[in-house]
Amino acid sequence: MFCDFEFFRFQEEAPVHERQRLKDNRELLLCRIDTLKCHKKKLNEEIRKTSGRLRHLECELNSIKPDFLYLYRRRERLTKMLQNKGLSSMTVQNLLQNFFNADDYFKGSALVSNGSPNFADGAATHTFSPTDSSSLIITGCSKQDCVNLLTGKSDGTFLVRSSESRSGFYALSVVCGGKIHNCLIECKDDKYGFAGTDAWFPSLYEFVSYYSSHSLKDHNSDLDIQLLYPVMPLASKLP
In Å, what is the CA distance from 102 to each residue of 117, 159, 162, 201? Predict the structure, then answer.
């Protein structure tokens, strides 16, 4: 930046027709310098605020490290407990994967509505969202896994798994009267439903949503029950 003395000296030495241009250029330079100073001030303020946020986040991370370590060890203990109860290692890992990947939950009037796993009666259950159809089915779940998951659970606890006897179809396993009942969910023309009924749905989400507020007795007279408590499904793809 030129000082006033130097500017006036250059202006005196310059030809008369150039003096106004020199003056205009000086004003333009001064304006740009002021703009740069303003930007610098704003950047310094942003840096100060960002540094403060980073220090705050670092403190928060340090404060939750003990909780994280505790939860990690607890997860390991629960994983071993489930495996000791008869669940396969793959089933347990898929359950964990779905629990940490699920974003939204189905909130039908007859389903659990708190959006979080419920272990009150020993059943790992949660709710689903309309966009969560892909996680309704438990992949890799054998009949024995199904028995292990549902034995001793409340009436209305259910899960959906791939049918072992009919390729492309699904099996609904539900607790009713203290017993585990299995129903074949057929898939015809891209719709899901029970054979012999008029209720067919374009997705498993809508199938489950319907039977969460309607009894299964239309399909089986022995099943006067609704789908109330979904066992935690796995993160997998449905057709």
Answer: 11, 16, 20, 23
